[in-house]
From TrEMBL:
Keywords: Iron, Iron-sulfur, Metal-binding, Molybdenum, Oxidoreductase. It holds the Pfam family Molybdopterin. InterPro entries: Mopterin_OxRdtase, Mopterin_OxRdtase_prok_CS, Prok_Mopterin_Oxidored. Residues 51-263 form the Molybdopterin oxidoreductase domain. It comes from the Archaea. Gene3D superfamilies: 3.40.50.740. One of its GO terms (molecular function) is oxidoreductase activity. This is Molybdopterin oxidoreductase molybdopterin binding subunit. PROSITE patterns: MOLYBDOPTERIN_PROK_2.
Amino acid sequence: MLNVIINEELYDAEFVEEWTIGFEELKKFVQDYPPEKVEEITWVSAETIREIARMYATTKPACISPRNALDQHTNASCAIRAINILMTITGNLDVAGGNIIALPVLMGQNDVSLSEKLPPEALKKKIGVDRCLISKILHMFPTAATPALWDAIIHGKPYPVKAMFVMAANPAVTSANSNVVEEALRKLDFLAVADIFMTPTAELADIVLPACTFLEKTRYATYSTHADHSWNARSRIVLSPKVVEPLYESWSDWKIICELGKKLGYAEYFPWETREEAIDYELEPFGITCEKLRAHPEGITITLPPLMYKKFSGFLGGILRSILKMTKFKDYPEMYRKYEGFMDGFFTQSKKVELYSERLEELG
């Protein structure tokens, strides 16, 4: 599709010129993939590829909804990047009816993940950094690359992994190469699982902790207020209150984590007695509490970009936010082309969409 759109000059030349870098490298690269060659690879006819490319490029606005299926393949990152490039060169980024730029609620709430407490030397020991690009560049969540984790358990390299605690997951079934996964889980010295069912993973566990269902715990969820598609562009916060007390000995995941933290000697980082107290702390920058959410079962909409709540906090911050809402952000969250305004470009080093990324090249 990129080959057709570029060679037939169906792209948004003005947007490409002003807001991207690497277009010439992209143009050169796609010449190796004419529709006829792609037909041999994908079994989609060259005629169909041209028809879809022209339809997408000439429809204004146009929206692509990738969703999760793409994540389940070995070339997921490259496929998603190619789709994002399609959105970019056709000028469909952050426009009404197109693919909007997400500013998730978590950018403004208080962080309770404690990821900042992880020592730098421990962060450097993330398993799979040498094999998985996302593990190499993403430090917000210090996650090991899953295939490399199974190898580390089985072979003890780059270092032995002896124990695992599984929550809200069933890797024995959902992770790729289930025979290897089962071998790794069986080799662990200790495996604990918290779940509402006795899953295949739980059957391998030394200890199974009964988790409660969503009806037995209070939580909050975020939803999108946009009709346009994006990833997690959520601006409405809704409370999902507990309906009944947890049955039998079941606990919520939140309670299990907090109690484990306290037993491990980190009680100072888990000061809340109830989940409601913790939610109030997380949403404090927005001035939202569980009490307010209960009074608004339809949810409360964040009326400014989330990062503004931390940038302008306190009493005076509230006044400044009110002024910003009446002036600069009166249309938020139904606000488009944010890269031309308060975002000051895109979230890249160049402030532009990097069709060709030198950083990715450096990372191999």
